[in-house]
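[audit] Reproducing an earlier prediction to check determinism. Same input, same settings, fresh worker. If the tokens differ from the archived copy the diff job will pick it up downstream; this log only records the rerun itself.
[audit] input (419 residues):
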Amino acid sequence: SPTMGRGADLPSPSLGRAGRPPLRWGFFRKGFLLLVTLSLSKCLYAQQLSLPDLEKRALENNRTLTVNGLEVAHQQSLVGTYREIPKTNVELQYGNIQTPFVGDYAFTVMQSFDNPKVFQARKKLLETYVQQANVALDLQKIATVKQVRENYFRYVYSIRLQELLTSELQVYGSAAKKATLRYNLGESGLLEKVHFETQLSALQNRETVIRNQSVIPYLNLQNLTASADSLEISTVDFRREKPLFFETSELPFLRNFDAQKSTIDEQIKLTQQQLKPGFVAGITNQSMEGSLRQFVVTGGLNIPIFNKSEKAKIEALRIENKVIDSKVVDIENQLLTEIQTLRAELLTTNQTLNYYQETAIPQADLMISTASKQYNEGDINYLDFQLIYAQAIGIRETYLQEQLKQKLIETNIQFITGK
């Protein structure tokens, strides 16, 4: 029949479950597992936070910076209050003003105004408060980044030290098993067995202490980044291959003094403008023998006759400016001296790290491999092995300490120079 073609051989949907083609469950299951694995891998990879990631999070979410940002907004909103006008004086008098037995009243409205230049000076003063708030925000950002870097490097150091202790535990654990076996076979005395067991126990305790101590910088990083969830921190940013270069042309912590001086200058200008006369305007409506037709317009000046306190204030502000100038010179010298000291320490530390990287670490690795081989072959006893191995591990620990020292010195220099 023409209606019976290739499609006639296919099972009809109405045939039920038995007529359906078999599903390839294995294929779909493998695809689903692959998709889940890729999603988890991507999620875990995204959670690995490097030092720049932590700095960015802190600058975006840190609670102290949020407070500083609100203070900036608060000072900005106050700028709009520079046109502050004194309250209007309204007076009403009633009684026998002109003739007995006739009640009259006098209604007066008076308003005083500052010199227009006072408004301009007040606005500039309020704007300097905004500038001070912005400077405080910028300096707090620098301090927050410094805290993030210090805690990050301390955390990485503790992780690296745990890794080193883990390798020590493996070596001493293996040595303790061999010593126990040799003791059971009568090939060695009890002292060797007890020695390695004691060393193993001490290392396990130290590894626990270091692990607990690593929680402190981790919690600090959580607090600095305002993270409620756990952080997956990358520990690769520790040893920098290229040296850092620092410029001391600008010391950001001196900006605070510049902002203070600007505020004092504007306070002086505002006080000087307030010594100039202001203006008074008003109107009086007075009845006379019941008549309401008497109007009087008043105009005048507010002259600050008693101005000794304002002049004394101006003089005090000028002296305060001189004090700030002296502080700036002193603090600038202190900061430059500290930078020079830190640079000298950094140079020494970098030289030490180069020595360890090029000479001491390869020698330590050779000492470990040689001592382990000779001890296993019976060429040296356990005391010689312990002495050589402890010396080699000490070199590696000192190398880690120097790496941490380098990072902390660099962080302090970056903090002072605002990098």
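[audit] rerun output stored. Observation attached for the diff report: The beta strands are 48-49, 89-95, 104-113, 232-233, 278-288, 291-302.
[audit] end
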